[in-house]
Amino acid sequence: MDNRVLFVDDDQMLLSSMERCLGLKLNLDTALSGPEALDRMRSTTYSVVVSDMRMPGMDGVQFIEKARQVAKHTVYMMLTGNQDVQTAIRAVNEGQVFRFLTKPCRPEEIAAAVAQAQHQYDLEASERELLNKTFVGALGVFADVVETLQPRLVGRSGKTEQIFDDLRQRCLLPARWEYKVAAKVLLLGFAMQTQQQSGVNVSPTQANMQLNRACTTAARIVQRIPRLDPVAEIIRCVPTTDGALVHANSEDPSDVILNGAALLRVAHMIEAMVDSGVECAIAMEAIRKTLPALNDKLAAAARDAYPSDIEVEGVPVDIENLQPGLVLFEDLTGAGGATLLRSGRELSQTHIEKLKEEKASRGVLPPVIVTRASFLAAFPEAVTAQTV
């Protein structure tokens, strides 16, 4: 793992001394100020950063606060004089620094402290790798298995992930593993509902009930896995988000959860409406109506991320094969051109019986054109079929 160390101090003599005494033991870089150190950190990964407390312009605490925004996984240490001990102790207690050393400090003491900080960095890096490659990987396999058992949902999870990441980048939010996993597993909740529970083209009330059930189910699944509590909270908050975004670069867990839930709700709505052939203007109106506090930046991101080449299409279904829940893609007309049912109407068993009676009396009726989304919900095994 990386063992590059950065020393930050406005005393050139001290930095030169560190290079002479520790240069052979450590992969060492130096910087004479906080701004110079930040420039280095933007292009180089450091496992440990050791900063002096008292520096002109930007002191050690201010530097570390800014440095954490650039390299949050780096382990930070502070060199301080006796007069700054209370400040250093407070920084340690607040989690800003791993430990502090008081001046004067012998090179071997600094080397030993850096070794401990390096060990801490390695432990945290190993933990992140375990989380990303083991827990998250296992969860991804589980999601793939469930999607395989639900042909209607194959590919939807990946689309939601892509839309989510597009929105995240447009809103200038940092990439986080919690977001990636939450976007992956949301559809698990839908996949584990019955076909009737997870139907499409339903009323807003029914759609909200479906979303609540799906999020509750998905959150219950992931919260059983160690260290995935933040993912469970993001998913659990999706149904109740109002679309507001909070501080983009905040590391506060509650802010991370609120931002993730807002983006995931919008990504899910976009994916579902694209799948149903809804055009952008109508989709944006629905999103704004559903999320009253929708952040302007997120609204603009949603509009820009929405595909411009929506393929609005219907699927013909013979009268004998109609099922309740299919939704009319176009108006259904009877003899003489009279409108029997309007487009967008969900067929009930009563509607279907009347259509069968109409066909029996007239001898022939053309296939009924239904929406692609409702067709795939009713006939998941016929994903590539053109007619039934």
UniProtKB/TrEMBL annotation:
> Which SMART domains does this UniProt record tie to the protein?
REC
Q: In the record, which positions carry 4-aspartylphosphate?
A: D52
- Which gene is annotated as encoding this protein in its UniProt record? hupR1_3
Q: Name one Pfam family in it.
A: Response_reg
Q: Which UniProt keywords apply?
A: Phosphoprotein
Instruction: Tell me which residues make up the Response regulatory domain.
Output: 4-118
Query: What name does UniProt use for this protein?
Result: Hydrogenase transcriptional regulatory protein hupR1
Q: Which CDD domains match?
A: REC_HupR-like
Domain of life according to the entry? Bacteria
Q: Which InterPro entries match?
A: Bact_response_regulator (IPR050595), CheY-like_superfamily (IPR011006), Sig_transdc_resp-reg_receiver (IPR001789)
- Choose any GO biological process term that the UniProt entry carries and state it: phosphorelay signal transduction system
